[in-house]
Design goal:
The protein is mainly β. It has no helices and 38 strands.
């Protein structure tokens, strides 16, 4: 999900299939019906509608032609909307500054727990059993459709401010807090606040094929949690740097870590460090991606893109057509084309033969693209500083 973009201009890129080299960019703003330019969250429901939660303008539904806006006047409990999900019964749930609100496609219902302080809900998640989990600034809440239950540090949370919620393949719930990570196994909370993590700044969470949780940090390397123990790998163990920004497990089960001083390959026993001496274009790595052919794509900070073919690196830079050599995000679409989000240069599409740049001069509001996803209908969504864009 793309969320928490400030000063967002909502964009749609309409691509004419009859003319493969021609496209138009239409910009939608407040003048076109968007309730506000500050957008916190974008969510696409099962019917294909886009729901846009704003910072003060309520929520807006976009049907591809026009916006329909909903605010407190329509029953929404607060006009600051942090998160949106759709439950198994196709109801929409809004996590707002004023708490929790449900929309059954006809009316809004304010969900007010008895004698419980529920406000400033930052994250909302529905688990495999249909239970709602709410991360707020006053603790963790669960809601079964009838009753609320509250959990705080007294119950084992590492902190009462919950920023994100994840359910792993085993069904355990992982909570990202301001003071560490908490895991709920269905019976009790386990916290990794002091005795395991210490003063830690978490950048990346990743679940591998075996169900292990990997934690990339900005000061303590990378940690692996196997369900029982938490094991740290740092520069003392062979990691190139204790700053780990991305993690990928390839199809053979080996791991790749993006650090600020090189690329690490880990086979489960030892680390191998690859740097400019081995063929990398730059040692500062920000993004990793394994394509359908098993090649590893490496987004660097200053060297552009490296494609690792198993034995050699192939370099692509601004001299080859990349819009910027500062690469923040990578995606392979369902047609096999690669997309590279950059810092200051917009986004570049690569079809294996030539590059095609999309930047501000083309009408794109995004200069910096930090995240790229493709939805179920094949649309490419780009998020970052300056806006949200959709390439159709």
């Amino acid at each position: 999900m793309l969320h928490r973009f400030c000063f967002v201009v909502f964009l749609l890129l309409l691509y004419n299939q009859a003319f493969t080299q021609r496209y138009t960019i239409k910009t939608y703003s407040v003048e076109d019906g968007l309730p506000q330019s500050q957008v916190n969250v974008i969510y696409q429901d099962d019917e294909g509608y886009l729901w846009i939660g704003t910072y003060g303008g309520g929520v807006s539904r976009y049907d591809g032609l026009s916006f329909t806006n909903y605010t407190t006047r329509d029953g929404l409990n607060h006009n600051i909307v942090y998160d949106i999900i759709e439950d198994h019964q196709n109801n929409l749930w809004f996590a707002t500054e004023g708490g929790l609100c449900k929309f059954d496609r006809f009316k809004f219902t304010r969900i007010i727990p008895d004698s419980l302080t529920l406000n400033s809900v930052y994250a909302i998640f529905q688990d495999k059993n249909g239970l709602l989990w709410l991360g707020s600034k006053t603790g963790l809440f669960t809601y079964d459709g009838h009753r609320f239950k509250k959990f705080t540090t007294q119950d084992g949370l590492s902190d009462n401010i919950i920023r994100d919620i994840l359910q792993d393949k085993k069904g355990d719930i992982w909570l990202a807090t301001d003071k560490g990570i908490t895991r709920f196994d269905g019976h009790k909370f386990s916290t990794f606040k002091k005795q395991h993590l210490g003063e830690i700044s978490i950048w990346k969470l990743y679940e591998d094929k075996e169900g292990n949780i990997w934690i990339g940090t900005l000061n303590k390397g990378v940690a692996q949690f196997n369900g029982k123990t938490l094991k740290f790998f740092t520069s003392k163990n062979g990691l190139a740097s204790d700053i780990v920004r991305d993690i990928v497990q390839d199809r053979t089960g080996n791991y790749w870590f993006a650090t600020e001083t090189g690329l690490n390959y880990y086979d489960g026993k030892k680390f191998l460090t690859l740097t400019t001496k081995n063929g990398l274009s730059n040692n500062n790595i920000r993004a990793l991606f394994e394509d359908l052919e098993g090649d590893i794509w490496i987004g660097t900070w200053g060297g552009g893109i490296d494609q690792f073919l198993g034995f050699t690196f192939v370099h692509y830079s601004s001299q080859d057509g990349l819009s910027s050599d500062l690469v923040m995000s990578i995606l392979e679409d369902n047609q096999g084309c690669m997309w590279f989000g950059t810092w200051g240069g917009g986004v570049t599409k690569f079809d294996g033969k030539k590059f095609r740049q999309f930047s501000e001069k083309d009408g794109l509001a995004l200069k910096t693209v930090t995240t790229i996803i493709q939805d179920k209908k094949g649309k490419i969504w780009l998020g970052g500083e300056g806006g949200l864009s959709c390439y159709n």
